[in-house]
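Worked example 2:
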Amino acid sequence: MSKVLLLINLGSPDSYQVKDVKAYLAEFLMDPYVIDLPFLLRALIVYGFVLPFRPKKTAHAYQQVWTPYGSPLVHTSQKVKEQLSALSDCPVYLAMRYANPSIQQVLSLIEKEHPDADLYVYPLYPQYAMSTTKTVIKEVQRCFKGSGTLYQLKPFYNQDDYIQLLVQSIQKFMPEKVTRLIFSYHGLPERHLKKTDPTKQHCLIQKNCCHTPNEAWQTCYQHQCLQTTKAVAHHLNKPNVQVVNAFQSRLGKDPWLKPDTKQVIQESIQLGHQHVAVVCPAFVTDCLETLEEINMGIREDFLSQGGSIFTYIPCLNDQENWVSLLNDWAGVPERFERVD
């Protein structure tokens, strides 16, 4: 049986024009794994309160990071796909969870060109979350019509080979004078952790839940983020650099994971850290949340509040060793699990 590799990233509007951003936000926010509310309530929020106002602001943000090749996330993902194709013995495809190229479009092409192939899906998210990994796999299951077997890459938040790449990347981009390294992960509402807890009795219920072994860890986004930071800090071995966790992109009034990245930036200045660095290990590809929110917005916050030097550490993007690792994983059956 032949094998096909399918990389799947978040996605991006087709352009930074308001109409395209509005279409993208509608698809994204109406995903029941993103705004996990009943359909009618979700539709009321999205179409009644978000889409009439937010697209213009978001379009401006996308315009700040747009490249001559279009979306930085899509363009970089395409480069990864091309480089992986050159390395791999398997056909390689790329899809986006939202907008284009869509999962349905790409699966239709795969089924036409490789109707009997087993499909190995790479959700390009190190940590598991219902709004990332789960929604990708659910959409693939919905659209997959091939006769082969479906497999997904397991979360790789604590895999030694991945951790070593993160360490090398941080070492490459972080200046020696940095005194505080902030790991800024994409935030989630706390209820998402409770919903993905198979026991319904551990996450955010038990004291020190992220440090008390439990089967919930297999799908706990917060635990997996903390483990990524712990592993990277250990191998980085910078005793003079304070390492802290934070969660960005908070939206709405519901409780979200803490601490908030903006608050950590304020705290950094209050504690006398004049040179900080920020890395975003919830992403493998630079996107709006890293390029605009962190490298522009958070940078401005830090400098305007009295900070001296702000360093943003890029994602792995299309680094050769990252693409090589994706290729290596294709040959390791244990890195994948069957999707039934």
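The mean pLDDT is 97. The longest strand covers residues 3-12.
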